[in-house]
């Protein structure tokens, strides 16, 4: 047997043993000392590429697509969300329409009532003058008619403005005269500190915040 057949397997390479002597590789299958066949070296176990994977689970390009598909909403769920959003939008539009309609209705009612009160101003002025002169004494038929008329207007939100002793308010009063505090017939409320109504020539009327006519009054300043 040649020297090349005597090189033991698994020994150092020729490059590693360069300069250290010849290298003998023994490739004989029969051991010369025992005469028994030599056992082949156990090959190194190979580790499968998916050894770290959990049994029953496989990863691949298709898994990413399946995972991504779970995030996509179901067509029925998406349709239900769209219908819900549409219903909410319609409900908000209906609420706005209802509120706007109510405001317009109140405005129209106030405007119509104001037109009626303006047409009745001469009659209301006559009632006021009759009371000032004592012609509408309590218990007389005309006094009862005047009270019913004013009560009816009150049910529609009509309020009378302009009373002796109340502070002057330019939004509901029109001052026709300015009288001295110590003048004849001028009586100021006790403790008055601002311009005060001391005489009412014509009463005023308002409906809510809308002034139909300002009260025409005489005022006086406390001394």
TrEMBL record:
Example GO molecular function term?
Answer: protein homodimerization activity
Checking SUPFAM superfamilies in the record gives: Coiled-coil domain of nucleotide exchange factor GrpE, Head domain of nucleotide exchange factor GrpE
GO BP terms: namely: protein folding
Q: Where is this region: Disordered?
A: 1-80
Which keywords does UniProt give here? Chaperone, Cytoplasm, Stress response
Q: What family is this?
A: Belongs to the GrpE family.
Chain's role: Participates actively in the response to hyperosmotic and heat shock by preventing the aggregation of stress-denatured proteins, in association with DnaK and GrpE. It is the nucleotide exchange factor for DnaK and may function as a thermosensor. Unfolded proteins bind initially to DnaJ; upon interaction with the DnaJ-bound protein, DnaK hydrolyzes its bound ATP, resulting in the formation of a stable complex. GrpE releases ADP from DnaK; ATP binding to DnaK triggers the release of the substrate protein, thus completing the reaction cycle.
Q: What is this protein called?
A: Protein GrpE
Taxonomic source organism: Ornithinimicrobium pratense
Instruction: Report which gene this protein is encoded by.
Output: grpE
């Amino acid at each position: 047997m040649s020297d090349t057949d005597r090189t033991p397997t698994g020994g150092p390479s020729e490059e590693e043993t360069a300069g250290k002597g010849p290298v003998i590789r023994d490739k004989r299958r029969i051991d010369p000392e025992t005469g028994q066949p030599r056992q082949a070296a156990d090959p190194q176990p190979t580790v499968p590429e998916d050894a770290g994977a959990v049994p029953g689970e496989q990863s691949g390009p298709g898994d990413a697509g399946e995972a991504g598909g779970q995030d996509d909403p179901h067509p029925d769920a998406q349709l239900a969300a769209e219908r819900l959003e549409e219903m909410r939008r319609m409900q908000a539009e209906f609420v706005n329409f209802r509120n706007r309609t109510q405001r317009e209705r109140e405005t129209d009612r106030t405007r119509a009532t104001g037109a009626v009160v303006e047409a009745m101003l001469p009659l209301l002025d006559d009632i006021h003058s009759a009371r000032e002169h004592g012609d509408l004494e309590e218990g007389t038929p005309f006094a009862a008619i005047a009270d019913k008329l004013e009560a009816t207007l009150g049910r529609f939100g009509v309020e009378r403005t302009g009373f002796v002793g109340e502070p002057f308010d330019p939004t509901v009063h029109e001052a026709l005269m300015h009288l001295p505090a110590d003048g004849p017939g001028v009586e100021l409320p006790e403790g008055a500190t601002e311009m005060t109504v001391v005489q009412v020539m014509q009463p005023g009327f308002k409906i809510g915040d809308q002034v139909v006519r300002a009260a025409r009054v005489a005022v006086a300043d406390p001394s």
